């Protein structure tokens, strides 16, 4: 499986313990199979380069949990964001959609408890579906091979950020329409 991760450094040996415990899929090292999507996470940081690392992950012998935009996915995200115990502690790798609220600036609204879970799930299913891959265990980290790193020019980073801004505006319109119509 070819995967990408954007950072401000070359990361030849991903550390599964550095990720946020309250992220969509809990603590782990997050990647994506979509290079353009990885680039869309790029940020400029004064005095640092923006790097897209490429990896190959061998899934053989790993416990892989695949999620879709459904109730199980929503429950997993909500539990992780709430700091609850990992629902899939035996999974080495979790593969599934990114919750769009983390991309488009509405983070946490849908898992805040202010709306019913079914309503929140329907709203989270709106917009584009991007895949994320979370390496959850040392065993998974041992199965990933760093291939290369590409430095993005600042102009490219800004171009990717403008694409995200346009997607965010469209997503905000979808959400406002959906919430307003209820």
Describe, in plain words, how this protein is organized in 3D.
There is one protein chain. This protein has 182 residues and is of the alpha+beta class. It has one domain (2-180). The protein has helices at 35-40, 71-81, 100-103, 117-124, 138-142, 154-180, and strands at residues 2-7, 29-31, 50-57, 64-66, 93-97, 131-135, 144-152. It has a 4-stranded mixed β-sheet with strand order 2-6-5-4. Strands 1-3-7 form a 3-stranded antiparallel β-sheet. It starts with a strand and ends with a helix. The model has no long low-confidence stretch (mean pLDDT 88).
What radius of gyration results from the CA coordinates? 17 Å
Please, what is the average pLDDT?
Answer: 88
Shape: globular
Termini gap? 41 Å
Helix content: 25-40%
Beta percentage is 15-25%
Assembly type of the chains comes to: single chain
The total tally of domains equals 1
Biggest pleated-sheet summary:
4 strands, mixed
Number of helices: 6
Number of strands: 7
Defining traits:
182 residues; four-stranded mixed β-sheet; 7 strands; alpha+beta
Summarize the structure.
The chain is globular and about 45 Å long.
Task: Record the SSE blueprint.
Layout (H helix, E strand, L loop, with lengths): L1 E6 L21 E3 L3 H6 L9 E8 L6 E3 L4 H11 L11 E5 L2 H4 L13 H8 L6 E5 L2 H5 L1 E9 L1 H27 L2
Parallel strand pairs: 4-5
Antiparallel strand pairs: 1-3, 2-6, 3-7, 5-6
């Amino acid at each position: 499986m070819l995967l990408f991760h954007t950072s401000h450094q070359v990361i030849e040996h991903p550390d599964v313990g550095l990720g946020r415990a309250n992220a969509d899929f809990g603590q782990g090292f997050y990647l994506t199979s979509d290079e353009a999507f990885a680039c869309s996470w790029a940020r400029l940081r004064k005095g640092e380069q923006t790097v897209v690392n490429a990896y190959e992950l061998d899934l053989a012998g790993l416990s892989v949990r695949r999620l879709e935009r459904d109730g199980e996915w929503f429950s997993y995200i909500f539990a992780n964001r709430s700091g609850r115990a990992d629902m899939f502690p035996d999974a080495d790798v979790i593969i599934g959609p990114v919750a769009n609220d983390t991309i488009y600036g509405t983070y946490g609204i849908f898992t805040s408890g202010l709306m019913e879970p079914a309503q929140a799930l329907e709203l989270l299913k709106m917009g584009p579906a991007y895949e994320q891959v979370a390496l959850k265990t040392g065993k998974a980290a041992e199965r990933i091979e760093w291939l290369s790193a590409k430095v993005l020019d600042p102009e490219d980073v800004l171009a990717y950020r403008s694409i995200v801004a346009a997607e965010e505006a469209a997503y905000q319109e979808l959400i406002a329409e959906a919430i307003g119509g209820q």
